[in-house]
Amino acid sequence: MRSPGAALSVESLVLDDLRPGEVLVRVVATGVCHTDVSCRAGTIPIATPVVLGHEGAGIVEAVGAGVPGLRPGDRVAMTFGSCGACRACTHRLPSYCDDAVALNLTGNRPDGTSAYRGAGVRSHYFGQSSFATHSVVPHRNLVPVPDDVDLGIVGPLGCGIQTGAGTVFTTLDLSPGATLVVFGAGAVGLAAVMAAAVREVGTVIVVDLHPARLELARELGATHVVNARDADPVAVVRELTGGGAGFSIEASGSPAALGPAVDCLGLRGVCAVAGAWGPASAPALNWRHIRTRAISIRGVSEGDAVPAELIPALLDLHRAGRFPFEALITYFDLPDIGSAFAAAESGAAIKPVVRMPA
After folding, report:
1. Triad 49, 77, 116: Cα angle to 5°
2. 3-class SS of residue 259
3. DSSP per-residue codes, 297-319
4. For residues 300-327, b (16+ Cβ closer than 10 Å) or e, as one string?
5. Phi and psi for 24 in degrees, rounded to 5?
6. What is the mean pLDDT of residues 72-78?
7. Cα 64 vs. chain centroid, distance in angstroms?
8. Cα(128)–Cα(314) distance, rounded to whole angstroms?
9. What is the layout of strands, in order, in the sheet containing 296-299?
10. What is the DSSP-derived secondary structure letter of residue 226?
């Protein structure tokens, strides 16, 4: 990405030598996340030029000094960066790391150097810059996965899929018989639907604007769907739940969806805000409803996940046929990365995944 809004370019760069704690990964495939799209559009600011990509999966080719538990040939998922030492990290909340912005949304290593030699291009976007055939990655960003797992589907577990699933499993910790409304049938929202099915949540209502996505939501476990173009989702939810749902997840990344996600809740309802917005967004909220119904609003980053635990757990569920997240994926080859971004922006693909050349 040479500048915000410009077309992405595929170029050849030379990687730096590994430093202590770093790993060289041959990337197999990388998911396109809403955050990548927002950075390219300039909605989320980041210094350029930079190599994007933060849902990578691949094979370890070399390890630097002091890297524990990894060796060449290991298959890994890549996820977000965290320091491992601050209060959030030591309390099992690495996505709220004190250095989260510096490690994920600044680019380059913490000392300011790039993993690319002499090109003036920033590396280490989310610690990985994985829209590339090879990445130099801090070992804390890597989660080993079994040898028989298809690396073509693994990458999105490192961000979008773990965000949706973690919001159900950890943030809200939903129980059987709960009532849940999911606003947005994208990768985050549909991962939440699949996780709700695993937890045997009693009522799962999905709100979106795309009929095909709503139909897929039904197939993945939604008990009801609402097309917000045709009906008022708040009225529908209140009718279906007898006054309001217990839980909602705003997973669309649209500020306009937060108001309905709060208004559809009943007494002491909880809204988890998992969608990512630009810094200028200012959603309007019904504060009277929030106060008189004792509504809670929870911010969520990466599903409050500990990736080293959640990613293997999701793969186990997938192996058992209980978390079929491959249904969300549409593949693109690296030369067609512009088409992958366009499909993500238009909604034509729920989770584009960019495959690297062999």
Report:
1. 30
2. helix
3. EEE-SGGG--HHHHHHHHHHHHH
4. bbbbbbbbeebbbbbbebbeeeebebee
5. -95, 125
6. 98
7. 28
8. 21
9. 224-227, 203-208, 179-183, 245-250, 265-273, 296-299
10. E
- CA 265 to chain centroid: 25
Residue pair 25/70 in contact (Cβ under 8 Å)? The answer is no
Cβ(345)–Cβ(38) below 8 Å? no
> How high is the pLDDT of residue 284?
81
Check: CB of residue 314 under 8 Å from CB of residue 162.
yes
Report the distance separating Cα 28 and Cα 310, nearest Å. 21
Whether residue 30 contacts residue 143, with contact meaning beta carbons closer than 8 Å, is answered with: no
Asked if residue 122 lies in contact with residue 115, where contact means CB atoms within 8 angstroms, the answer is no
Integer Cα distance of 353 and 246 in angstroms: 34
Tokens of 24: 């060289």
**Identity at 272, one-letter amino acid code:** A
Take residue 284 and report the two structure tokens written for it. Answer: 């309007």
As a whole number of angstroms, the distance between CA 223 and CA 206 comes to 8
Tokens representing residue 347 in the block: 């909604």
Predicted confidence (pLDDT) at residue 272 exceeds the cutoff of 80: yes
Global pTM?
0.95
Own/partner pairs, 98-105, CB within 8 angstroms, 24+ separation: 100/301, 103/127, 104/54, 104/80, 105/39, 105/44, 105/46
**In this predicted model, what pLDDT tens digit does every residue of 140-177 receive, in sequence order?**
999 999 999 999 999 999 999 999 999 999 999 999 99
DSSP element (H, E) containing 165: helix 160-166
Q: Give 115's contacts (C-beta < 8 A, 6+ positions apart).
A: 15, 16, 108, 109, 123, 124, 129, 135, 136
Burial of 331 (0-12, 13-18, 19+ CB in 10 A): middle
- What backbone torsions phi and psi does residue 351 show, to the nearest 5 degrees? -135, 90
* Cα dihedral across residues 86, 90, 91, 97: positive or negative: positive
3-class SS of residue 61: strand
* Euclidean distance between CA atoms 75 and 321, whole angstroms: 22
